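Input chain follows. Return structure tokens only.
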Amino acid sequence: MTPHAATHALILGGTQGLGLAIAEALAVEGCTRLVLAARDPVKGQAVAERLGAAFLPVDLGDAGDVVACVDRAAAIMGRIDALCIAGALTDRGSILDTTPEIFDRMFAANTKGPFFAIQRAAQLARAGGHPVSIVTILSMVTHCGQSYLAPYSASKAALANITKNAANALRHDRIRVNGINCGWMDTPGEDAVQRRYHGATDGWLEAAEARQPFGMLVKPAHVAGLAAYLLGPMSGVMTGSIIDFDQNVSGAYPE
């Protein structure tokens, strides 16, 4: 089955973790016009070569750089009809100790950069007269978030609103915008965060997974299938949806 044989996809943050899994899912489903964008050019070039994709360096915290990246990707592929925003900063900070510098850096990369990526992709699609499907990778923290994730939670909650607002504004242009609230996920980035901020050592993942209802953390490949569906024609007219992808139910309390 090749639902993405005609897809021209740009994935921001597409060289590791969930972004990479989404790129792999699109490639398996027939996508041959694929651009991956991220900060690390060495890793990015290697991943892109393996997938037969193009790579562009981008700083999600620089809105001008993000817009230029969208333009370059469109020039490489001829157009963009699928955009996934998977990159993000996950620095820690609570309401008591977050500095203005950390707050601004988090919102620049997690909210402002994605806002202008969506804007530019929509502008190009409107000018070219073609549809585009956009997926924002969000987090279950949009519902609240742990105390040590105050700026991250706020930045993702803002992006969730942007997702729905854009979906409403752009639907008559055949531009669809949906989001996925991911739960605690098993990625290389999460391993680094656990070791850096929470003193985790080898074996932390196994211990964490043993405490989960389904005996595992969310896996990138599982979410990638949903993202590929939302980015492709099989999701039809679906827009403005924020999907919780987790094993814990928001709003539920211990019984």
